[in-house]
Design goal:
mainly alpha, 70% helix, globular
Length: 110
């Protein structure tokens, strides 16, 4: 697959591509790709990726620091996607943050 084919694939399927990049050995490239794909992510796609990150943390995967990756992903996310999570996915956000605080000495990224 050449560079143009990659670009087309990434733009057509941004949440699926990002979810694949949560797995070893690709997770170290996740943020670099996320920064490119933010422009193509719809709100429900963003939730899909956040859910994927949360699943890695909740299942206690130890192959990478997924909490740090979650924070970095959130901190670099466009405001409209964060607002969507705060309003339309409020229950998910509250549960995730409460669990992170309780089990991982997490502060907040709200």
């Amino acid at each position: 697959m050449d560079e143009e084919d990659q670009k087309i694939t990434f733009q057509k399927n941004p949440p699926e591509v990002l979810r694949v990049f949560l797995d070893w050995p690709w997770h170290r490239h996740f943020m670099k790709l996320a920064l490119i794909l933010f422009d193509f992510l719809e709100e429900r796609d963003y939730y899909f990726v956040m859910w994927g990150l949360w699943t890695k943390i909740a299942c206690q995967w130890r192959d990478y620091d997924y909490i740090e990756l979650l924070e970095e992903f959130w901190n670099h996310s466009p405001t409209h996607l964060k607002e969507y999570m705060r309003s339309e996915r409020k229950e998910f956000m509250e549960r995730m943050i409460n669990c992170l605080k309780k089990n991982y000495n997490f502060h907040e990224f709200y």
